[in-house]
Sequence to fold (705 residues):
Amino acid sequence: MWRKISCFARGAITMKRISFPAIAAVFMFVLLSPRSFSQASKPVAEWSFDETEGAVAHDSAGGIDDTITGNFRRVNGVIGHGLRFDGTSTVVTRDRKTAPHLTPGVTIDAWVAIDAYPWNWVPVVDHRSEEQAGYWFGIDSFGHVGMNVAVNGQWWTLFSKAQVPLKKWSHVAGSYDPAKGMAIYIDGKPVGDLSVQGPLTVAEREDLVIGTVRQPMLPAQWIHPKLPVWFSFDGIMDDIRIFDHSLEPAEIAKAYADVQVPPGDALPWAVLPAGPPGTGRFGGFYTTLKFDDMWDAPRRAAPDSDVVVRFDQAPIRLVFWQGANYTGDWVSENGKWYTDEFVETGGKVDCPGGEDCEPMSDKQNRYSHVRIMENSDARTVVHWRYGLCEVQNYTCANPDPSTGWTDWADEYFTVYPDGVAVRKQVLWTSNFARWHEFQETIIINGPGTRPEDNIEPAALTLGNMKGETKTYSWSPAPPKKFDGPENPNIQVVNLKSQWKPFQIVSPVKSRATIYSGELTYSMFEWWNHWPVAQVKSSGISAVAPDRPSHSSLSHILWEPYAQTDNTMTKIMLDGLTTKSAADLVPLAKSWLSAPAIEVSGQGFQSEGYDQTQRAYVLNRQAASTTGGFRAVLKASPDSPLVNPAIVIKNWGDADPKLVVDGKAIPRGPKFRYGHIGKLEETDLVIWANLESTKPTTFEISSPRK
Fold:
C-alpha cells in the first residue's frame, strides 16, 4: 500500500499527509554545461529552448522534438534563448513512450525567471503516475521549491524554506540518490535534504509534462468560491536537464558558478496602462491600452476598445480598460489607481456557481463594454454597461421567471474639466429582496507594489456637510468601526499622491462601513484575483506584489436617487482632488443644494437643476427667434456656485457668447462649450470655471441660425 511520508528535513520543510498538489514540488533549475561534468554526468534529456520558430522544444540529449501548446514566446534566456510561459496555458509535453524511465536515481536542473508566483504548486518537470510512481519538481505560490519521489511504496515530499525571487534568473536543482535521499538547491547552495533509501519507482504510463498542472487545482490562498483552476508556470524557463543519477553538491555548485548571469531583471515589471501621463487636451478618447504581451496576445478585443479621459488643467486620467473590466478607474499624477467599484450581488442561490455576481467575475468581458456618448470641450459622457455574472459559467444573477432577463447595470460618467464626475448607476433587477452593493473603496495596486506603497497608513478621511471630519488609520491595526462624524457623506482616500480620490453622496441616511476580516498578508485587505487575472475565482489573497492586485477600505451606503419596479438608480460625485474633506463641502453643497435659477428670454424655459448631470437644464422652443437668454443663479453660502454647467436643449449649432455679471468671458479655460448632436435637435452644454456665494447673472447669446 502506498502512503505519503512527511518529516522535517534540515533547511527544508515537509508536511504530513498532504496531497501532492498541495506540497509536492521541486524546482531544480540549473544550467549544467556539458563541459562541467564527466562523461558519466551526461543528461538523458536536455531542453535548451534555442529554437527560433515552430511549436516544438528539441531535446538534444534524446534527439526528440516535443510539442509546445498554449500561448508562448521565444525570448532571451540565461544563455541563448528561453521559453516564455504565460501562467495560464503553456505546456511542453513528452509522449510517455519516449520519456526517460529513470531508476534508481534522478537529478533535474533548470534556470528560471519567475514573472509571477503560481496559484499553487506548478511543475517544472512532472513525470509521475498520481502519487504512485515517478518524480515531480516545481514551485509554490510563495516561491518555495520542492521535490517528490516515489520510493518503496511511499510518496516522499521535500520543499525549501528559501524562496526563489521574482524577475531574476535563478538556478534551482533537485536530486534523489537511492543511498542517501533527496536534496534541493537554489543558486548552487543546498536548501534542504531528506534521508530516503531505495530505488525510484518508474512512471511508465504517463506523459512527461513541463510547466503546467495535470489537472485543475484550488488556488493555495483561495477564499471563494471553492473552484479548482488550470494554470501554468508564469515566466521564462531555460536549459532544463534530467539526469538518471544524483549529481554531487559540488557539481551543482559548479554548474551555477560556470554561468555568467545577465545583469538586471530578466523580465520587466508590467505597468498598468493609462495612456500618456501629464496634462493633455480635455476629453474622452478611444484607444488600445497595452499591458503585457503575454496577457494581450490571447485577448479577443478589437482595436480602440478602451477609453481614456484626459484633463488639460490636471495631470490625472479616468481610464476604462478591459483589463479592469472597464470599471472607470481614476489615475493620479504619479500612477496610483482607484475605483468606486460597481453594482454587485451574490449568494449561492441568486448567483449560482460563482457566488459573486459582478463585472470583475466577467474575465473575458462577455457582457462588459464601454462607449463615449458625448465628447466636447465642456464635458465628456461615458456609458459603461455590464451584466452581473459569476466567474465559473458566466451565468448572471436573478433571472426573471417570466422574461428570463437577469441583473444588468448601466453606469453613466458625466465628466467635467475640473476633474469631477457624476456617476449615475442604474441597476436592472427583478429581485430587490436580495442585497445589491453600489460602492466599495478599491485601490488597484500595480505589479511590483504592495498596498503600503500606494496607501497612507491614515488611509481614509470621512466628512459631513457641517465640515466635521475624522481620519482613520490602519496602523498598527485596521479600525474596528467608523464612529464619526455623524452622517458622513464625503470621503477622501489618502493615497500616496498629490491628487487623491474623493466621493460625495446624499447625506440622507448616509453611513460608511469598514472592509475587513479576510485573510491578508498586508496592513490592508489584499487580493490578486482581479484585475487582469484570468483565473476563475472571485477571492484570492495576495502574498507578493507579483501581479496586479487590489485592496478595499470601506463601503459607502446611501439612499437611492430613484426607483421603479425593476430599476434602482444611485448617484455620486467622484474624482480626484487636492482639497481636504472639509474643503469639499462647498462642492457638495453646490451639487446637493444647487442655487435656484431664474431665467428670462423669449422661448427659453428652465427645467431646473439635474443632479445626474451636475447641470442646469433649459429648453429652447423650436419657434423661438430670440438669440439668447438671461439666467440669475441665486447663489449663497448654503447654496454656492462651484463650476456650474448649463445644458440648453434645441439650441442649434450656433456658437454662444457668455457674459457673467456684465463682464464678457472669452472662450477658454474659464468658459467652455460644446454642441451635442442628436437625431432631431442639437443641444448646447456650457461649463464655467467660477465659484460664488452670491447671486450671479449669466447672459448667453448668439444669432439664431
In short: Residues 593-701 form one domain. The CA atoms of residues 409 and 427 lie 5 Å apart.
